[in-house]
Amino acid sequence: MTRLTTVARALITTFAALLASTAPGTTAQAGTDPKAPKDFVALRSVDPTIIQEMRYVTPHNFVGERIDGYRQPICILTRPAAEALHKAQRQLLRQGYSLKVYDCYRPQRAVNHFVRWAEDLDDEAMKGEFYPNVDKTRLFADGYIAAKSGHSRGSTLDVTLVKLPAKPTRPYRPGEPLVPCFAPKGERFPDNSIDMGTGFDCFDTLSHTLSHTLDPRIQGRQRANRLLLKGTLESLGFVNLAEEWWHYTFKPEAHPDTYFDFPVARKSLAGAH
């Protein structure tokens, strides 16, 4: 090898290293991500039997795309919330049901993504399923979207019930025809959960829980199903959000005043490799 070739290769190597160190690549960005406090855990490490269908890692949500900050389909919660959910699961398994979580800890960057989407009034790609009767200009005023979410504090989750043995839920196919989230269960997207009267993340008054409004449209088995979920979780310290039958927060919260922004990923947790 000539001296000229050696020098040329050295220059190329140096230039490549310089580009790598200055480019805003995902590897460099990942290295600067914040980490979760030590009391945050993966729900699966506390109770591997709880079904997880993490919607915001997929395009099947009201935005229509993967949400910022969701890198892996895992549920992360504060340990007290996860352990309380484990106790609820033990009770429900004896009755032939399993809990299923749609969302748990939510980073602030994901909430920011929701806000940007809500401000873009031209983007109504998923309106037909998730908010057919709501004008998008009303999302903030009606409380469906906010700049802060209790999910970011780590003790809040979105949850439902599945009758055992659990049937698989088919994958959502982007571009498929959308059916309103409040349509009869046999017509809306085929979620394997029991009938709660609406699908998850349904922006409609039908999603309000019984403590908020005695909507006469929620009766019979739908009402009983909501009460089973609500009664089980509330007996173990969870508090329901009146506007959403699926939304529960474990009290007292471990971090009642802190909104975290670490990504939803195993690497965010203490001791993760």
Explain how this protein is built.
This protein has helices at residues 3-22, 26-31, 43-46, 79-93, 108-119, 127-130, 220-234; strands at 40-42, 51-52, 76-78, 97-103, 156-163, 238-240, 247-250. The protein has seven helices and seven strands. It has a single domain (40-268), classed as Muramoyl-pentapeptide Carboxypeptidase, domain 2, CATH 3.30.1380. It is an alpha+beta fold. The model is unreliable at 1-30 (pLDDT under 50). It is globular. The strands form two sheets. A five-stranded mixed β-sheet has the order 2-4-5-7-6, covered by helices on one side. Pfam families: Peptidase_M15 (PF01427). This is D-alanyl-D-alanine dipeptidase. It catalyses: D-alanyl-D-alanine + H2O = 2 D-alanine. Keywords: Cell wall biogenesis/degradation, Dipeptidase, Hydrolase, Metal-binding, Metalloprotease, Protease, Signal, Zinc.
Keywords:
Muramoyl-pentapeptide Carboxypeptidase, domain 2, two-stranded antiparallel sheet, 273 residues, 7 helices, single chain, disordered N terminus, alpha+beta
What is the element layout, followed by pairings?
Layout: H1 3-22, H2 26-31, E1 40-42, H3 43-46, E2 51-52, E3 76-78, H4 79-93, E4 97-103, H5 108-119, H6 127-130, E5 156-163, H7 220-234, E6 238-240, E7 247-250
Mean pLDDT: 89
The structural class is alpha+beta
Order of helical and strand elements: HHEHEEHEHHEHEE
The name of the CATH topology is Muramoyl-pentapeptide Carboxypeptidase, domain 2
Number of strands: 7
> What does the main sheet amount to?
5 strands, mixed
> Spatial order of the strands in the main sheet?
2-4-5-7-6
Distance between the termini: 41 Å
Number of structurally distinct domains: 1
Shape: globular
Radius of gyration: 22 Å
Just give the CATH class.
Answer: Alpha Beta
Strand content: 5-15%
Low-confidence stretches: 1-30
Q: What's the CATH architecture?
A: 2-Layer Sandwich
Helix content: 25-40%
Number of helices: 7
